[in-house]
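Let us work through a complete example step by step.
Step 1: write down the sequence.
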Amino acid sequence: MIELRELCDLVADLQAQGQSRDTIVEVAAEQGWGTRQDVFGAYWLLNGGYELEDTDALLDRDVQLTDTKAKLQRLKRENKTLKLRAAKVDRLVEAYSQARPPQAPVPLREIKAAGTRQVLITVSGDEHISAFLSWERLHGLNQYDMEIARQRMLYVAERAAAFVMRYWRDKSIRRIVDVNLGDKFQGVIHDAEATNEAEQADAVMHWVETKAACYNYILRQCPHVTIKSVHLTGNHTRRSVRQDVNRPKNHDDYLSARFLQTLFRDEPRVEFDIPDSYWRTLNINGHAFICTHGQFVRSYMGIPFYGILRHYKEMALISEKTDEHQAMLISAVKALIDEHGDELTLDKYRPIQRHWIQGHFHTCCRGIDTSMGTIFMNGSLIGPEDYGLSIAAATPPRQLFISVHPKQITDVIAIDLQHICHPRSIVPAEVLEPITVMA
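Step 2: predict the structure and record it as tokens.
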């Protein structure tokens, strides 16, 4: 350790040579002239005439400034990376659209409905395409591969068409909102890569072609119905190791949805909603539905129920500020005025229900009532698997159907898929049409 006067002389010599402050500090640290605080004190004495007791505050300010600059540089790099990745996705989608011809449009047929128009929500998610499960490994609980996944998806489409055409015979369901909650593919987390049946690119193409076959079947069987396809991202299909709320486009869930959108670019009956976000608020027949995959819900003592409630309340408060919710509120008030006119009183007011739809936990729940709305938990397409068995959460494969009337939710049905565990299943032959997968 050297005296302060000598330290100031050494710092002055380096400064005279044109060295920057940071360089002077580094040289002083290498030569062992003193602590960083001592060197900063000498520097500030030479350049500002500050008293020594001010060096602590100056050092803290300098450290904060350095940290802020480092964070700013990191954010700039991440923003540049995100732009490059988004451009890469756009190039892939453009190449796919040039290589794959669009689906031929199916004409819409107007049918007079006897009842009030309703909307059917088909919730899909946690397909985990490319996962391979054998009877032996799961002790007879489940069997799963890409062909079984395809048949289960097609069976859900057949059930949706049957629900529209046979269950509601008055043809009051005119629209299907297909909410895809994410985790379409098994990905590489939980050490799943070692047991995957196919490469991720092949799994993406398999899902896209199968989903296209599902939509085509519904459009043919239900000529009076339009489809809105909503796609969110999960946690299994991310390409980066770190989960980041700023990177929903860095997922094969997002890429596969864009591919599917290009297939139906000439079909006016299919509308796509692919947000650059992990959640979405939807106005479905006058009801607000907050949809998310659910990867940000935390469990408490191994139970996710309270984590779901807390996350739901937080997102419900946030969704109130969205343009979608405000427009829905105005529309609901106008509808009440049109219905009751001058006789509108407080007891006739119907508050907008904010329902919650999520997946992720592979557990189907047909409704948890709260003061703000109903929480719906979608199951999975894959069913019992290795990770679920390890945490004692192996539940049967189920997907939800929710029919929505302007005044209430009329039906909530869980489509059980446990029986489709073999390539020769009970799926109708007309649904299992051949699909063409790009080479």
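Step 3: interpret the result. The longest helix spans residues 55-99.
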